[in-house]
């Protein structure tokens, strides 16, 4: 039976791992997979009065059709800066403006670009797994330290380590599922 302290350690580890998985999920949303999605622009920032600001905070972003993203800046003077930021982000499409709205036509992905995106997704997944394993190690170390300090018995420590391992396995499986789903989405023409 885990003590309150051991449960607290396991809960902290689980929370850190959940944050890692959530971060990966958000990161994967920014991958351009051939159809328009406003989250593609999540990592694009523009210089707004001397401050790097996400495009979503200086313009409204919409998806009028499956292959176009429309960006309507709240100030016309930002149009060139937003276009430049999108080009610098190297997202694989070229913005066009009519003086009021920036339209970004999303071209279909080439086979080479699909493979690059899959490599990038796998690398992000691997980094997330490393972060999860680091959280596991920190949790196990905390359990050992608490046991040495006499906060609970060795049996409770072992049980806590088993619990941390179960959580780790579940999060690694979740990461694998996210990557596999993203690969399928990328390869769907």
What would your notes on this structure say?
The chain is α+β, with helices and mostly antiparallel strands. The chain has two domains: 4-29 and 110-187, Topoisomerase I, Chain A, domain 4 (Orthogonal Bundle); 38-105, 2-Layer Sandwich (Gyrase A, domain 2). 57% of the residues lie in helices and 14% in strands. The protein contains four helices and six strands; from the N terminus they run H-E-E-E-E-H-E-E-H-H. The chain has helices at residues 4-29, 79-88, 111-148, 154-187, and strands spanning 45-48, 51-54, 59-65, 68-73, 96-97, 102-105. Strands 3-4-6-5 form a four-stranded antiparallel beta sheet, with helices on one face. It has a two-stranded antiparallel ribbon with strand order 1-2. Strand 1 (45-48) and strand 2 form a beta hairpin.
């Amino acid at each position: 039976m885990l003590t309150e302290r051991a449960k607290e350690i396991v809960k902290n580890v689980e929370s850190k791992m959940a944050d890692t998985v959530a971060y990966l999920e958000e990161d994967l949303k920014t991958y351009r997979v051939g159809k328009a999605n406003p989250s593609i622009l999540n990592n694009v920032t523009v210089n707004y009065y001397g401050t790097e600001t996400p495009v979503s905070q200086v313009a409204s972003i919409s998806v009028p059709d499956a292959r176009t993203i429309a960006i309507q800046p709240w100030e016309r003077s930002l149009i060139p800066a937003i276009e430049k930021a999108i080009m610098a982000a190297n997202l694989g499409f070229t913005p066009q403006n009519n003086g009021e709205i920036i339209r970004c036509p999303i071209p279909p992905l080439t086979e080479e670009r699909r493979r690059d995106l899959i490599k990038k997704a796998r690398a992000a997944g691997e980094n997330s797994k490393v972060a999860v394993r680091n959280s596991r190690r920190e949790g196990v170390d905390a359990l050992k330290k608490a046991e040495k300090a006499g906060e609970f018995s060795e049996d409770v420590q072992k049980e806590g380590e088993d619990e941390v391992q179960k959580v780790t396995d579940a999060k690694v499986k979740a990461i694998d599922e996210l990557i596999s789903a993203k690969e399928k989405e990328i390869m769907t023409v």
